[in-house]
């Protein structure tokens, strides 16, 4: 380990440490513009020039590694004067329009000049001006190149992190401009990463334009509520209106990374459609306001007079751990019913299989540990659309550390371009593909696999059949097997394609065990699309397992079974928290009929939704910005969300409402403050007993723990693993295509939307407002259709109109439809228990 | 003196392979292929050949840095991006004797174990590109390129790649970026190209003239080469002389030939018998020399000792009618225009210098401007990413140092001194 002297301090650092980092360790901050740890190094801004004793020229600290016995000066006169000279150069063509610049007050150039001078410039020549007016790069990004310092962070982040590469440097010398070709609109991910990394006011947010100065804003640290990547972020409001969300580089495992939903989807908080008071349906079927007292009283009466087995609750996977824990406590301990489920989209038996295959009960895995594998196999998750920041982490780290990435998904996605191999298996046939992989391992190294439980012999005839069924050639399978064979540590990332129908959950477990039997270290990481899906499972929001995955006694119902019972007139009371069953259950007409047969339906929601419209009683719940609590992301990382503002009107937080119901039924129901509920969780749920949530203010000390990057103490521990011993079943996915309905209909999250929440965001709707379908270019050509055509999709006795988009890499015979539209219920195309539906697509000729 | 570079250029159809072969061409390649590659590197090392692109780095030493691992792909890249103002020596070889370069490149590739080589040629050399492509085709037809050259185990492919008009791409790492299809901007070093160059593989980058010396060194031996010119920089050198001389052009002379001899004996002296005022000795980034230095020996070390440089051997002669402010402005404008934009001091600094020089030239100079120029130069020098910015400053400092009075005159009287 080299020892270096930085100014007067000696430090010992790891081999290859940059002078910049060694200086930081010694307590000296060397200023930089172009340096960003997760991007390729450039060494171009020359702000970090330092003096190395014995060297003639100053050297850039951000690209120069230390050597043993090196003596570095970071603050002497030569260095300071060079630093000030660089700033004078940067200012020579700078616009100096701080009074009208959105960045003023949080501008790195401003701060740097203030600190390092010069406070008087000598450049008195005409400035080069790229343009007279700011120009829009797309619906959310606006550009002013006259302020640019040419650090190229925007170009690099777009290429290396986002994987889009739509920005470039155009021109040369001092007229070089970082922009899109011809300065036209970007067809990009709209994630605003270029804005986030820009040190000056060159890239700006259109929605935030001229709205506030940083010092006008009230901020709170929280977690993005969209997907389970769980990006830490800061949301900021001015006069009761949330005006932006920004990344929290110093306090989040996601660094500066955020996606379009996280960065621009905050404005659902300002949506006008918020519910503000409890509503009861009168005898004419119209909802009218009532007081909280009366509402709670009605629930109390209903719960008390109904048999527990006929009462159930379905909760959203976006509620906090505290609310979810309290909800199951209310149901199980007070009402006496275990009819609990956390999603209306997937069946609880599939959830159990998925939880087994991904070994969630064994505790959390940091994504950085997961990426420290030789091979990363991403299967059954369209991570680029569903978990964009997970996609960024995979791309960035795989390229930086030369890791192999393999992708297996039924549809194309952006991560394909970062993968060594892409397996586009036929929809619903992941099980066959995994079967073929495991079979190939058996063929080549079968002698080592006797310990793998549930592995039946695979004949070469079977292999051929599996290969044919999955649409993946045996050669490709063999290559993958060879590549996995030479890897010592392997990470499997699996997601919602497995959860949607149960396709491949058994195969995933077998692949995992096969690799382990071959002596490999295997990590399995679930990739989930709702912010607190893992937390909901950890809290036991499931009919089969309780908090910490402990098996529960008795036979209880999940969402689908509750609805089935309701349809038979055998279920009376359903309490729905933050979930829209009508819109999301994968069979609309079944859901509608079942819900209408309920005796009493209570819906607790922030917005009016399709299910709430049917409710007998509506309770106005709070959004994530109005409460304290914790989310557990897909890694098993527990992170705090904190309150920015009060719920509108008479609204209450979900936790408060559950507590009100609970204590109305049982006066010893327990605590209602989030911190105290969390303490109870820690004492009752083993997995959480040692957890220190990131950003969480402790109930005991009132202090937030000091944050460290990739804070492992925030990962949950191991819970009950009994569940892991149950043998998983692979579901057979039926394909409903026929001559009249030639297209397989796939659904899922779109890059700009996840579920119905994003439809409350005007900004995200601005990026994608109209319902679309995606199709392959060849299919479109055959049907004589073009991008932007209005088309009609028919199937399951339902039809609706969509705008056609052609997506490169979409397989033939497949269309994709985002699942979030409220005006067009995608789930009307689905009929439960029939697998992937077949539909037809016809053009509307005008 | 025996020539090794310009032997063929005056022959009719000199660019044809038949002309080259009839003059004894490709004999060196035959001889080289019978030797161990290691021996060839030793020979080049022993010859004392130094890079003719400007830096004067020992060629044999550069080759010896290439890892010997036979499983690693290695590349030879010929830097034919001749763009330094005043330089037109490589062009003569490319257009008049392309096979000399090609033979040199095949031998060099054999020495370092490279299966592929590239000639990165300046975009403006349209004619040169055509000639080289034709010559490479001829070499393939005759079996000097392709599989198992002359029955040996050595196979080699050669490609010509045109640049797109950027001076910076003559800087070797920017050249590699450009060759890979990226934006032509210099890379950080280390890693040096010898370890991670083109496509991150070990790469030797040599100038056209350097590579063209190789056949003669192979056929006539290291000692013969070392016997020409001064001990520390042996061999002959192409000097391209332009400006106010009677007979501008490219001449091949031993290293260390006095400047006076080059200008007066070989280029016919100053045009119209006027007085000489200043000489650029090695391309415009080399600080200017005053007539008092006319007897200086033109080699790497002697010029370096006088705080200027041999550079590419481009000599620009200026007579007494030349306004040095205007020259300084034009030279600086060139550097500013060619600054790639990567690092702050070069990008912003050279542009700023140009603005000030332009003002002075057009009669809008201020008294404080000379001091400002000095200070901006100080802020650029040594702080840039690559030598381009330093070159701009070195040139301007030469003008400011030697002709300060002319700048002052220009500022005060708002007109040229001459």
Can you offer a commentary on this structure?
The complex is a heterodimer of chains A (846) and B (418). The longest helix of chain A has 16 residues, at 77-92. The N and C termini of chain A lie far apart (73 Å). Chain A is built from 26 helices and 34 strands. Chain A has 846 residues and is an alpha/beta fold. The radius of gyration of chain A is 28 Å and the shape is globular. Chain B has 3 domains: 17-226, NADH-ubiquinone oxidoreductase 51kDa subunit (Rossmann fold, 3-Layer(aba) Sandwich), CATH 3.40.50; 236-319, Ubiquitin-like (UB roll) (Roll); 324-413, de novo design (two linked rop proteins), CATH 1.20.1440.230. Chain B is built from 17 helices and 8 strands. In chain B, the strands form 2 sheets. A 4-stranded parallel β-sheet of chain B has the order 3-2-1-4, with helices on both faces. Chain B has a 4-stranded mixed β-sheet with strand order 6-5-8-7, covered by helices on one side. In chain B, β5 and β6 form a beta hairpin. The longest helix of chain B is centred in the C-terminal third of the chain and has 18 residues, at 344-361. Chain B is globular. The A-B interface holds A 41-47, 49, 56-58, 63, 82, 85-86, 88-90, 92-93, 122-123, 125-126, 128, 149-150, 168-169, 171-176 and B 166, 183, 188, 336-345, 347-352, 355-356, 359, 372, 375, 379, 382-385.
- In terms of quaternary structure, the protein is heterodimer
For the record, the CATH architecture of the largest domain in chain B stands as 3-Layer(aba) Sandwich
Total strands of chain B: the figure is 8
* Beta-strand content estimate of chain A: 15-25%
How far apart are the first and last residues' alpha carbons of chain B, in Å? Answer: 40 Å
Highest CATH level, the class of the domain at 279-346 and 533-626 and 651-673 in chain A: Alpha Beta
- Total domain units of chain B: 3
Principal-axes shape call of chain B: globular
Total number of helical segments of chain A?
26
Strand count of chain A:
34
**Most residues in contact, chain pair and counts:** A-B, 35 and 29 residues
Shape of chain A: globular
Terminal Cα span of chain A: 73 Å
What would CATH call the architecture of the domain at 279-346 and 533-626 and 651-673 in chain A? 3-Layer(aba) Sandwich
User: What number is the mean pLDDT of chain A?
Assistant: 93
Are there runs of chain B of 5+ residues with pLDDT below 50, and where? none
């Amino acid at each position: 380990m080299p020892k270096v002297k930085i100014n007067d301090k000696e430090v010992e650092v790891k081999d290859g440490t940059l002078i910049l980092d060694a200086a930081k360790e010694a307590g000296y901050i060397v200023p930089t513009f172009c340096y960003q740890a997760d991007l390729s190094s450039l060494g171009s801004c020359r702000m970090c020039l330092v003096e190395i004793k014995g060297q003639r020229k100053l050297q850039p600290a951000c690209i120069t590694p230390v050597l043993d016995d090196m003596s570095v000066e970071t603050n002497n006169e030569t260095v300071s004067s060079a630093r000030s000279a660089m700033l004078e150069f940067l200012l020579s063509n700078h616009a100096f329009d701080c009074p009208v610049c959105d960045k003023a007050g949080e501008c790195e150039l401003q701060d740097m000049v203030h600190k390092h001078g010069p406070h008087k410039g000598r450049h008195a020549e005409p400035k080069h001006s790229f343009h007279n007016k700011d120009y829009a790069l797309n619906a959310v990004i606006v550009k002013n190149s006259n302020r640019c310092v040419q650090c190229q962070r925007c170009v690099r982040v777009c290429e290396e992190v986002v994987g889009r590469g739509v920005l470039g440097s155009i021109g040369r010398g001092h007229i070089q401009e970082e922009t899109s070709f011809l300065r036209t609109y970007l067809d990009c991910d709209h994630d605003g990463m270029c804005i986030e990394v820009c040190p000056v006011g060159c890239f700006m947010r259109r929605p935030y334009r001229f709205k506030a100065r940083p010092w006008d804003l009230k901020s709170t640290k929280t977690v993005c509520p969209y997907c389970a990547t769980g990006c830490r972020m800061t949301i900021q409001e001015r006069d009761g209106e949330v005006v932006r969300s920004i990344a929290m580089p110093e306090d989040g495992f996601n660094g500066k990374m955020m996606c379009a939903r996280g960065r621009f989807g905050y404005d659902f908080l300002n949506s006008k459609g918020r519910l503000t008071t409890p509503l009861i349906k009168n005898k004419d079927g119209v909802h009218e306001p009532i007081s909280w007292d009366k509402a709670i009283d009605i629930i109390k009466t209903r719960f008390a007079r109904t048999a527990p087995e006929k009462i159930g609750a379905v909760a959203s996977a976006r509620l906090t751990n505290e609310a979810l824990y309290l909800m199951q406590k209310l149901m199980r301990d007070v009402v006496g019913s275990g009819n609990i489920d956390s999603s209306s989209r997937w069946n609880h038996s599939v959830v159990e299989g998925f939880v087994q295959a991904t070994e969630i009960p064994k505790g959390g895995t940091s994504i950085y540990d997961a990426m420290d594998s030789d091979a990363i196999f991403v299967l059954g998750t369209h991570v680029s659309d569903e978990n964009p920041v997970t996609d960024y982490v995979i791309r960035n780290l795989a390229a930086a550390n030369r890791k192999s990435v393999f992708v297996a998904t039924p549809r194309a996605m952006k991560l394909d371009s970062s993968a060594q191999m892409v397996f586009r298996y036929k929809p619903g046939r992941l099980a066959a593909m995994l079967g073929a992989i495991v079979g190939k391992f058996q063929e080549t190294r079968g002698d080592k696999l006797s310990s793998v439980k549930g592995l039946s012999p695979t004949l070469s005839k079977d292999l051929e059949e599996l290969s044919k069924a999955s649409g993946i050639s045996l050669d490709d399978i063999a290559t993958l097997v060879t590549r996995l064979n030479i890897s010592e540590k392997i990470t499997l990332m699996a997601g919602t394609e497995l959860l949607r129908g149960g396709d491949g959950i058994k195969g995933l477990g077998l692949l995992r065990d096969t690799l382990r039997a071959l002596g490999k270290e295997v990590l399995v990481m679930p990739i989930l699309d709702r912010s607190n899906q893992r937390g909901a499972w950890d809290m036991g929001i499931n009919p089969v397992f309780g908090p910490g995955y402990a098996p529960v006694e008795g036979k209880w119902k999940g969402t689908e079974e509750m609805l089935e019972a309701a349809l038979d007139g055998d279920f009376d009371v359903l309490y729905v928290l933050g979930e829209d069953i009508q819109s999301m259950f994968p069979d609309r007409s079944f859901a509608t009929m079942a819900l209408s047969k309920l005796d009493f339906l209570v819906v607790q929601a922030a917005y009016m939704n399709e299910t709430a419209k049917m409710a007998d009683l509506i309770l106005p719940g709070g959004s994530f910005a109005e409460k304290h609590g914790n989310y557990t992301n897909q890694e098993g990382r527990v992170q705090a969300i904190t309150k920015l503002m009060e719920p509108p009107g008479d609204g209450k937080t979900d936790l408060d409402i559950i507590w009100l119901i609970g204590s109305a039924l049982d006066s010893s129901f327990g605590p209602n403050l989030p911190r105290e509920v969390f303490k109870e969780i820690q004492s009752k749920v083993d997995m959480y007993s040692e957890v220190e949530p990131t950003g969480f203010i402790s109930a005991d000390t009132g202090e937030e723990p000091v944050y460290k990057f990739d804070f492992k103490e925030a990962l949950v521990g191991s819970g009950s693993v009994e569940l892991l011993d149950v043998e998983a079943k692979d579901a057979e996915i039926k394909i409903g295509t026929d001559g009249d309905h030639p297209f397989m209909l796939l659904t899922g999250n779109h890059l700009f939307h996840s579920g119905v929440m994003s439809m409350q965001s005007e900004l995200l709707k601005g990026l994608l407002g109209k319902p679309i379908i995606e199709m392959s270019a060849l299919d479109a050509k055959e049907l004589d259709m073009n991008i932007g055509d209005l088309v009609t999709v028919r199937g399951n006795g339902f039809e609706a109109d969509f705008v056609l988009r052609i997506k490169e890499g979409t397989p033939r015979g497949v269309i994709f439809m985002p699942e979030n539209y409220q005006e067009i219920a995608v789930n009307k195309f689905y009929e439960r228990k029939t697998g992937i539906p077949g539909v037809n697509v016809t053009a509307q000729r005008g | 003196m025996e020539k090794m570079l310009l032997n063929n250029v005056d022959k009719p159809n000199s660019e044809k392979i038949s002309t080259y072969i009839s003059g004894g061409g490709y004999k060196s390649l035959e001889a080289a292929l019978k030797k161990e590659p290691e021996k060839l590197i030793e020979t080049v090392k022993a010859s004392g050949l130094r890079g003719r692109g400007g830096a004067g780095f020992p060629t044999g030493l550069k080759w010896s840095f290439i890892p010997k691992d036979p499983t690693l792909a290695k590349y030879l890249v010929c830097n034919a991006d001749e763009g330094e103002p005043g330089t037109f020596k490589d062009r003569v070889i490319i257009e008049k004797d392309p096979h000399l370069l090609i033979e040199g490149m095949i031998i060099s590739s054999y020495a370092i174990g490279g299966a592929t080589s590239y000639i990165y040629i300046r975009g403006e050399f349209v004619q040169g590109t055509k000639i080289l492509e034709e010559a490479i085709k001829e070499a393939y037809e005759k079996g000097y390129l392709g599989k198992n050259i002359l029955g040996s185990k050595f196979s080699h492919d050669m490609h010509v790649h045109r640049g797109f008009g950027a001076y910076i791409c003559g800087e070797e790492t920017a050249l590699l970026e450009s060759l890979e299809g990226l934006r032509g901007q210099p890379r950080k070093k280390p890693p040096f190209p010898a370890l991670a160059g083109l496509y991150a593989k070990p790469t030797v980058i040599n100038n056209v003239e350097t590579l063209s010396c190789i056949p003669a060194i192979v056929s006539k031996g290291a000692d013969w080469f070392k016997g020409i010119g001064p001990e520390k920089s042996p061999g002959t050198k192409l000097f391209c002389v332009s400006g106010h001389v009677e007979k501008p052009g490219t001449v091949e002379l031993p290293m260390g030939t006095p400047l006076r001899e080059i200008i007066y004996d070989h280029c016919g002296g100053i045009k119209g018998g006027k007085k000489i005022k200043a000489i650029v000795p090695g391309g415009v980034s080399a600080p200017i020399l005053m007539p008092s230095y006319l007897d200086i020996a033109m080699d790497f070390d002697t010029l370096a000792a006088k705080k200027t440089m041999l550079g590419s051997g481009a000599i620009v002669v200026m007579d007494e009618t030349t306004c040095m402010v205007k020259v300084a402005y034009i030279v600086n404008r060139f550097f500013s225009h060619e600054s790639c934009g990567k690092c702050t001091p070069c990008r912003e600094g050279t542009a700023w210098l140009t603005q000030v020089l332009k003002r002075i030239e057009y009669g809008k100079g201020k008294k404080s401007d000379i001091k400002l120029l000095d200070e901006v130069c100080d802020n650029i020098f040594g702080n840039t990413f690559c030598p381009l910015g330093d070159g701009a400053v070195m040139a301007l400092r030469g003008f400011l140092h030697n002709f300060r009075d002319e700048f002052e005159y220009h500022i005060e009287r708002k007109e040229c001194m001459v």
